[in-house]
């Protein structure tokens, strides 16, 4: 059984994850998390050679981040904008899966459609899904929110049953095939089938937790790339509990992208100034998800990350990826001394205009220290 969960970044939309997660535990269903982005939004963004940052909650910040000097490179910029928008959305979906699905494996996907309902229905067909779960009365999020009219259209057009999850987390099954639909399954208690010698989910979790607690820190870092989703997450949480900043900073230099991504995610939670240089290095990582997560971590650390970022803008003024990450960190601070740098990052030819503005801001900043 495959379940498509349509998400728009709203709390009501996310409640659909809890419902679908319960069914997946009971039935072993395969989960597909999907969000829809209006390609016109990407076109407008790309026209200025930019992409939009996503908050940890999944909503677009609305702030355009520069990606290239403009004009003759429009086609390349537009392609990059689509790629980066998709990467940010997929990272948001993975983050939601970790927070709501308690380790259940899930696939993520992004649909580019100007009609949200059409994008969701297309995802159903592409994944050969058996069921759709989505929230109603959603607000905000990527592209267009999953409002009531969207839900109604999906119910009407979907080739499979649709479960709507309302504000009170009460689901009801609505479908053009309601007579053939399977009623909602109750949450699983994690118990094995009668007569089975298989361990319960609770026993497996207890054994996994015991292993994680007794593991060496370096082993935990290795487990950040483990095939077991739950082991990866628990290893990261244990590294956070141990305040293992040095180990996580070292992990940002590992070859495995999953380790670098998980290390940046853990450092975002720890918000320790010692991790700033390593996180700035990750702003130029080849992996877009790693870059995005590192920028989020530096944003969480806040002002202590500003001076090091300004210095890096001086030493590596031509890095497009560094420009993106620096903007993501500096723009929300709304400090007068940083505004000229942000303006230069948003303007044409940042590789030329940013360094003098960064130098001026750095002098002002160091003058207050």
Notes on the protein architecture:
Helix 13 packs antiparallel against helix 14 (320-330). This protein has 16 helices and eight strands. By secondary structure, it is of the alpha/beta class. The chain has a six-stranded mixed β-sheet with strand order 5-2-1-6-7-8, with helices on both faces. It has a two-stranded antiparallel sheet with strand order 3-4. It is 54% helix and 12% strand. Helix 1 (11-27) links the parallel strand 1 and strand 2. Residues 43-76, 138-147 and 170-193 have low confidence and may be disordered.
Précis, in short:
The chain has 369 residues and is of the alpha/beta class.
Strand content: 5-15%
Oligomer state equals: single chain
| Helix content bin | 40-55%
- How would a crystallographer describe the biggest sheet? 6 strands, mixed
Q: Give, in order, the helices and strands.
A: EHEHEEHEHEHEEHHHHHHHHHHH
CATH topology name of the domain at 2-175: Rossmann fold
The spatial strand order of the largest sheet comes to 5-2-1-6-7-8
Distance between the termini: 60 Å
Rg over alpha carbons = 22 Å
Low-confidence stretches: 43-76, 138-147, 170-193
Mean pLDDT: 77
Content-based structural category: alpha/beta
